[in-house]
Amino acid sequence: MQLDLTSDATNVAVARNALAKLAREVGARVDDVKIAVSEAVGNAVVHAYRGGASGTIRVTGRYQRGRLLVTVADDGMGMTPNPGNPGLRVGIPLITKLCDDVRFTSSEKGTVVSMSFATGVAGGGA
To answer: Checking CA distances to 114, which of 23, 51, 60, 92 falls within 20 to 30 Å?
Structure first.
């Protein structure tokens, strides 16, 4: 599954709902997936695009070897301090707590959050 979304706050719910459906299908912890995806997409909307800039947030989800693998990638400015909106500073710690594994990759070309969740599906998958 792949979604290419504009960097608009309304797309947080679009991503959350799409990944929740996939999580249900493969037996992942739906609430954990929903919260982690919401935080990752929300962070991209708020922090990746500043000063009226816009861009694309790509959200992917796939089942692989007993795991739901989710990535949230933006083409924004990377993980740099945002003095104009420092946020609550709970998004990254929350994502880290909810995922079985998470990795953050950032450069001036954007940020990628790669998340992994255990599933209840054995063998094949979605």
So the answer is: 51
Q: Is residue 81 very low, low, confident or very high in pLDDT (cuts 50, 70, 90)?
A: low
What pTM does this model have?
A: 0.87
Best CA proximity match to 7, nearest among 41, 33, 51: 41
89: left (phi over 0), alpha (psi -120 to 50) or beta: left
Residue 125 has pLDDT above 50, yes or no: no
Q: Are 112 and 68 in contact (CB under 8 A)?
A: no
C-alpha 99/C-alpha 119 separation (Å) is: 12
Residues 105, 72, 88, 107: is their CA dihedral positive or negative? positive
* Overall fold of domain 2-118: Heat Shock Protein 90 (3.30.565)
41/95 Cα distance (integer angstroms):
11
- Residue 56 contacts by C-beta under 8 Å, 6 or more apart in sequence? 4, 5, 6, 7, 74, 75
Q: Taking a C-beta distance cutoff of 8 angstroms, is the pair 11, 55 a contact?
A: no
